[in-house]
Amino acid sequence: MQAYPLPSISLEEAMQKQFRMVSCIMHHFSGSEQLSRGDLGVHQPENEPLTTMKAEQAIAEFFDSEAAIMVRGSGTGAIRYALAACLKPGDKILIHDAPVYSTTATSIDMLGLKTVAANYNDIKEIRRIIKENPDLKAVLVQYSRQLIDDSYDMEEVLLAIKEEKDLPVVTDDNYAVMKVSKIGCELGGDLSCFSTFKLQGPEGIGVVVGKKEYIDKIRKMHYSGGCQTQGHEAMDVLRGLVYAPVSLAIQARSGEEIVRRLKAGEVKGIKDVTIANAQSKVLIVELEKENAREVLKTAERLGALPNPVGAESKYEMAPMFYKVSGTFLAKDPTLIDKMIRINPNRAGADTVIEVLKKSIERSA
Questions:
Q1: Which of 153, 161, 203, 349 has the CA that lies 20 to 30 A from 188?
Q2: pTM (2 decimals)?
Q3: Is the pLDDT assigned to residue 270 strictly greater than 80?
Q4: Is the pLDDT of residue 325 over 90?
Q5: What b/e readout covers 142-153, taking b as 16+ CB neighbours within 10 angstroms?
Q6: Phi-psi region of 129 (alpha: psi -120 to 50; beta: other; left: phi over 0)
Q7: Could you tell me if 276 and 148 are in contact, meaning their C-beta atoms sit under 8 angstroms apart?
Q8: What does the alpha-carbon distance between residue 237 and residue 347 come to, in Å, rounded to a whole number?
Q9: DSSP three-state, residue 259
Q10: pLDDT score, position 3
Q11: Collapsing DSSP states into helix, strand and coil, what is residue 147?
Q12: Which pLDDT value is given to residue 289?
């Protein structure tokens, strides 16, 4: 089983991201403002809470970008608004030749977009498809893997696209933010989209960060007060962004230790194990027997989480034992009985291995 997970930043790099996020917040908020819950309503002339405006400025600074905006609908909402800012109904968009994440597919259908696919693992094919489709209006690139054998490098893909044609590029950075060195908008993309719920933040808030010309269009879509991210929500977003990088780096370290120990044969009944982005960075465990469903049921009784909430949200402390992702199953439905995915979340390697060992033994 070969996978090509996104390289995780080190704990030291994660600490530097935490420190930088705090500095960016201090550039836009006084000390007293940081200890408040923020304001509400549509302050004029910006037509949003002042706290939210300052938080967006801090986020834009952190990602070395022109602008940022918080939107409702989490990562899905962020992608949807970004696509709407770049495209009109009926426009053609380039996507990866792989199963599209379900809510992204819904957004594409909702906006009436036409898609053309290229294998992002093949730079020559990307260039060829762009040449063959002069009516392309934009590109969508998902940072995390859609297929277990995806190996493309985000920076190389973005560079190839921009060299071929200066199309607006929207990057889906869910499951990558605060885990990788740079996100899409820092690597040449026009708009990066992600959920703050995956980053220890509040439910339902997404972020679009990147080119001001597109983000200004999204702001016009948010005239209503009910669309606004309120001040207290914006402050919760910032606090999550401060704590997420170190927490995620520790999680990545736990995952690597678990793989080493499982490959050394510490738990019987495992055929193979690897780390993959599916969509969050997880352990993909292939079992010797086709008893994955029973193993998952047993793990839940032992205290493992049976499903994600926000995929690494603030509620997910225990390790998650879950079926492999829907995009993986779309390619091979038989994986439902052969494989499971494990996200350590806040747990250590000893805890994960103990639950896995007992679950396999009791499901034999």
A1: 203
A2: 0.92
A3: yes
A4: no
A5: bbbbbbbebebe
A6: alpha
A7: yes
A8: 23
A9: helix
A10: 77
A11: coil
A12: 94
